[in-house]
Structures are given as C-alpha cells and as structure tokens.
Amino acid sequence: MTAPTTDLPAPDTAYPSTTPTRKVSTMSRHALSVLVENNPGVLARVSVLFARRSFNIDHLVVGPTEDPKVSRMTILVNVSSEQLHKVTSQLDKLIEVIHIEELDDAAAIREQLWAINDNGPRPVGAMAAAWG
Amino acid sequence: MSTVTRTAAATDTDRPAPRTGAESLVETLQRVGVEHIFGLPGGAVLPLYDALYGARGLRHILVRHEQGAGHAAQGYAAATGRVGVCMATSGPGATNLVTPLADANMDSVPMVAITGNVPSAAMGSDAFQEADIRSITMPVTKHSFLVTDPNLIADTVASAFHLAQTGRPGPVLVDVSKDALAALVTQPGRGELVLPGYRPQTEPTPESVRDAVELMLRSRRPVLYVGGGTVRAGAHAQVRALAELTGIPVVTTLMARGAFPDSHPQHMGMPGMHGTVSAVAALQKSDLIISLGARFDDRVTGARDSFAPHAKVIHADIDPAEIGKNRPVDVGLLGDARVVVDQLVTEFTMRTAQGAEPDYAAWVTRCLMWKSRYPLGYDEPADGSLAPQHVIQRIGAIAGPDAIYTSGVGQHQMWASQFIGYERPHAWLNSGGLGTMGYAVPAAMGAKIGCPDSTVWAIDGDGCFQMTNQELATCAVEGIPIKVAVINNAALGMVRQWQTLFYSERYSNSGAPSAQVPDFVMLAQAYGCAGLRCDSPADVDATIEAAMAVDDRPVVVDFRVHKDAMVWPMVPAGTSNDAIQYARDLAPDFDEDE
Ligand SMILES: Cc1ncc(C[n+]2csc(CCOP(=O)(O)OP(=O)(O)O)c2C)c(N)n1
Ligand SMILES: [Mg+2]
C-alpha cells in the first residue's frame, strides 16, 4: 500500500462522552486536515457531505502530497464540537477518505489561508472575456 | 450504435486473450459468484450485453423498468443474504435506478448496480443519453465508481462486490463508459483495487464488551432493541442466545421483524410509530437500552428529547457513524453483530458464573403485563365489509412462517408487519428507511428468483401496486410465480389516515375515485397472471387457498377492503412516545403501576 500509514484513534475511544449530555454546545472554529485518494470526484463527495448538514465551509484548500495518489484537503468550519464529530464520522465513511485529523491552531491556519485567498478583487467574468 | 465489429460472437467457450473490457466485466461477475442479474439494455451498455450473450452460469432477467431491476436486486439480496445485481444503460436507464439505490442505502442492502455510459470522449458534452450517474448517486450509495479505462473494469467490479457486502452492507454503483467496455484489456489488474481508506472493524474491544456487560448486570429494566443490522449480519441465533441467557425483554424494529420469533414469550413486539404498546412502553420505561444493529430512527424514538428519558444506552453497530448519531451512548460496541453478541454472551455467562446476580424479575413481570393488557387488535367493520387486517392475518396463517412476505408502503405495510407473525429472519422484506411505494412486486420477484422453493407473497396497496406492477409481465414470461395480495381500499390509505386524524378529514387527493379502475383482475390476466377477487369475509380463506394452489404463473388477488380502517396503535409524528394511542382517543396508562 502506497498510502501514508494511518493513525486514527481506535474508534471506541472516539465516541461522544459516556454520559448522555444534552447541553447546547457552542460554535467554534475547527480546522481539519483530510487525506483523500487523488481521484476525480472526491471534492464533490466531501462538499456534498458538508452541504447536507448545512455546514458552511469557511475555507477549503486542496493540494498534492508527496504521494501522487493522495491529496490533502484543509477545511475550516465554524461549528460545535458535537456537530463536528458527527460530520467527521460521516466523512470517515467515505471510501476515498484515508485519514482525518483536527489541527490544533485553527485561528492561525485561518489567518494564513486568508492571506493566500485575499489577493484583491478580480472581476472574473470580465477577465475571462479579456483573455478571449 | 456500436462502433466495434467483431467477427466471432462472444460465447461461453474458452475465450482467447485478448478480451474486451465488457468481457472482463462478465468474467469478474462469474468469478465473484454472481448467478442472477436484473436489467434492461440500451445503446451505451450494448458491448456488455453482447458479452453477456450466452455467458456461462449467468441468468439475466429482462425487466420492464429499471426501477424494477433495482428493487428485484434488493429483494434477492434481502431474501438470500447475497449481493443483488442490476444493470442499466446510460441516462434514463441509470436515473431509473436512483430510487432503488437510495432505498438500498437506507436499509443497508448489499447490491451492485452496473451502468453503461456514453464514450469517455463525449462525457461532459451533454451527449445523447448522458447522465453523470456517478455524481447523482454519491449521496445515496455506499460508493460509486466511474471507469473509463478498460484495464480497471475487472478490479473495480470486484471491489464493488467487496464494498457492498463487507462492513455495513450497501449499494455500490459502477458506471463504465462505452469505449472502455468495447476496448481491449491490455494490462489486467491485480484482482481488486487498493482502498486505503476502507477498513471496517468487525470486533469490539474487550473493554467495551466488559463495560457493556457491567451495565447489563447493574440494570433493573433492560431491553434488547433489535434492528435490521442483526438480519444483515445473520445474527439471529446469537440474539436469541443472549435473550434467553439473560431473560431480557426483546423488541424488533420494522427492519428486524423475524430476527427474534414473534411467538417467543420474551418478545414485546415492534417499537415505533405503529408499534405495540408493550414495545413502546418497554423502551420508554427502561433504564438500559441494548441496541443491536438498530439506529434510533425517528419513527422509533418519536420526539427524541422525551425518548426513553431514564435509559442508559449500549449501542452495537458495524458503522461507527451510527454510534451516538441520534442518541448519546454510554458504551459503544463497534463490530459485526454476530461477533459482538457472541462476546456479550460469553462475558455475561462468565460474570454470572462468578456470582453476579442480575435481577430483572419485577421488570419482566411489568412488561408481560403490558403485553397481555394491550395486545394488537382491530375492529371488524360494522357494515360486514372486509377488514384488511383480517385478510393479512389469514395470508400469514395459511402461507405460514416459511413463506417470504414483501410489502409496499402505507397502511398495508404496517398491518403486514403487525399481523403476519414472523418466526425467522429474511422472511419479511420491506422498504423501511426510504419508504418506497412500488417496492413490493419487484422485490417479490427478486426474492422468488433467489429462493425458488419458497412461497413469496407481495402484500401490496392499491396505490403502490400501480407504481411497479409492470414487472408482473417479467414474472409471467420468465416463470417467476409470485403471489400478490392487493389490499384495495381505493385510497392512498396512509395519507387518508393522516388527513382523518390531523387535517380535519379534508381528503385532498388521497382517494381513488373508483375501486374498479383499473380492474386488477383483468390487469393480472392481461399480464399472463391468474387474477382473483375477494370482497367478503366468508371467502377470504378459500381465495387465499386458491391463490396458493396456482403454481404455474403469478397470481394477483384483488381484496376489496374497508376504506376507513386505520393503523393502531399510533404515536403521532413528532410527538412523544408517551403519547401513544392504543386506538383512536384511547391512551394506555403505562405509568399507573410505577
Ligand atoms: C414513491 C412514494 N410516493 C409517495 C409516498 C407517500 N405515501 C406513503 S403511504 C402512501 C399511500 C399508499 O397507498 P396504498 O398503496 O394504497 O397503501 P394503503 O396505505 O392504502 O394501504 C403514500 C402516497 C411514498 N411513500 N412513496
Ligand atoms: Mg390503498
């Protein structure tokens, strides 16, 4: 197997808390790093999953890894941890998702992604027309 | 149509290499043990149908509509436990499979759908009969593949079968472009794809089993909440062993009817919206729900915030995403139901041998009291017309527990789940999760192909029957003698029931203007089936016996039943299970003896 070794926690330890809690959890920013098979259609699958739960994706970056068969998605969402757990366990069910990790410093990652993204307004349609 | 011309027709004689993508697909089907395919050809899939022509050991059943092929594959799979296979052409052929795929996804039915698509060079150009079925089916399948390289067809199809039947079973679609089907395989693969992200876990951790049994021993009011996963896993013997070892009361969900015998004294019935009072009360009042392959569906829990408010939860499932999805859990048991329940049996036996003394006696007495006080029942119509429940009960009694029963969706489905009496798994097939009208006839066809020696009854509604009855033609010409009971109340009865109860009897578009159009008996005969009619209670048994005696062709019985019959008990949608009504305006009081 050429894919990176995976080190997901044993699923048993990943369950929600052992005592039923029904408190309303608060929204916060989370950054996910998701390794996926580099197949066409993977991005659609992942985004459909988020859309189905009405999660708005703040930022999404997809790029290559050292392994040409594997891509990395970095996803920033603003949700409660409980909702996040539900969406990641659904995400993990996707056959093409190899590994999911929550990154520690969501705020810093957001800053960096924002810097990459914010390269000024571009009238895309007009530009396309100009380039013929 | 086809751009390939080959001089030698594909036969079942030894094929010399090289072979086409289509031939490699057929070989793969043979290799993984497929015997039956339900499908209908068209332009894009013709190379595949050419390779199927005369293929050894494969019977293709030509359906009348691809939705029928899909539900037939589901019925085949649900009755036999093997992967069902359906096939269709591009565009409309493929989109006609979407409903059965979504249905199979909801009910965890192992199934593989193979579709042809337009040549890869034409994809994305809105070519004739082009539909992006891989994308369309993404949210309603376990996985969907698009193959445009002939070298990858065999491995992809083999992987589709692996995915469909391992872990949580489900439908897998393989869409293959026409050029890939027609081209020669130049580089055969390794037999299966590498799927680095797919690692189903089948064994629970020892700690989780210990924790679960600890909770069971400490509980005073436990319930075994048995779901469809136990049927898919073939875990009925283990479930029975656990139930009898512990003495804990059992409820079986709509998808699990038959996983535990209805006649068993510990069986409290079906929980949920139209469940028995004893099953609903047992869950509501329990202090520990032991969920085995069930998913706390909203039709079972009612309003979730008042569902079983004092219960801790042990949740066993093969799918980690189910555990804790709808209800927080105290112990999650991840794994195959057979393995999980076996281990619970072993651990529980060990703990009691070491002196643990669980005490469920008072609770069992209370459950049995509910069961005897609130049995399932129905009123005979005052005007002497046929009670639908009576018809269904008599079919169950006469055809017996060895027969297979399928149903549509509606009142007749609920009555069939309540009044037939199930003693074994794989005998009750219905569309539980998606609730697809039209499931019954094609599913019965598939079940009969898979289990030719069993009597197969489709208990259908007059509304549902009109959605897929074209497959009776398939049954007639292919020699698939199913039996269909149309529970004809001249109404979309379940819709009507809701309008009676919640919309002030404003019957908007729920009644058929006539019970005679179409004439189901003549329709049956036109399809080459026997057609019978029954409208009086006195003739019910004789009519069922007459239908049982027809063996050389399908038979349809038009049972003209009372149109105002309602399904009871009922928990109105969105309300608490505590609000269950035993019959109209009759609420049981299961608190009285607390
Ligand atoms: C494809 C589809 N369309 C609509 C519905 C909504 N629906 C649920 S039950 C029902 C009535 C079914 O009528 P019938 O088959 O006559 O069964 P009955 O309830 O009368 O026994 C309808 C329309 C559905 N479940 N499936
Ligand atoms: Mg009806």
Overview of the structural elements:
The complex is a heterodimer of chains A (132) and B (594). Chain A has 132 residues and is of the alpha+beta class. Helices cover 33% and strands 28% of the residues of chain A. In chain A, strands 2-3-1-4 form a 4-stranded antiparallel beta sheet, with helices on both faces. The relative contact order of chain A is 0.22. By secondary structure, chain B is an alpha/beta fold. In chain B, 36% of the residues lie in helices and 14% in strands. In chain B, the strands form 3 sheets. A 6-stranded parallel beta sheet of chain B has the order 2-1-3-4-6-5, sandwiched between helices. A 6-stranded parallel beta sheet of chain B has the order 13-12-14-15-17-16, sandwiched between helices. A 5-stranded parallel beta sheet of chain B has the order 8-7-9-10-11, with helices on both faces. In chain B, strand 5, helix 7 and strand 6 form a beta-alpha-beta unit. In chain B, helix 1 packs across helix 2, helix 1 packs parallel to helix 7 and helix 9 packs across helix 14. Chain B is globular. The chains are: A alpha+beta (132), B alpha/beta (594). The structure holds thiamine diphosphate (TPP) and magnesium ion.
Proportion in β-strands of chain A: 25-35%
What is the overall silhouette of chain A? globular
What is the percent of helical residues of chain A? Answer: 25-40%
Structural Rg of chain B: 25 Å
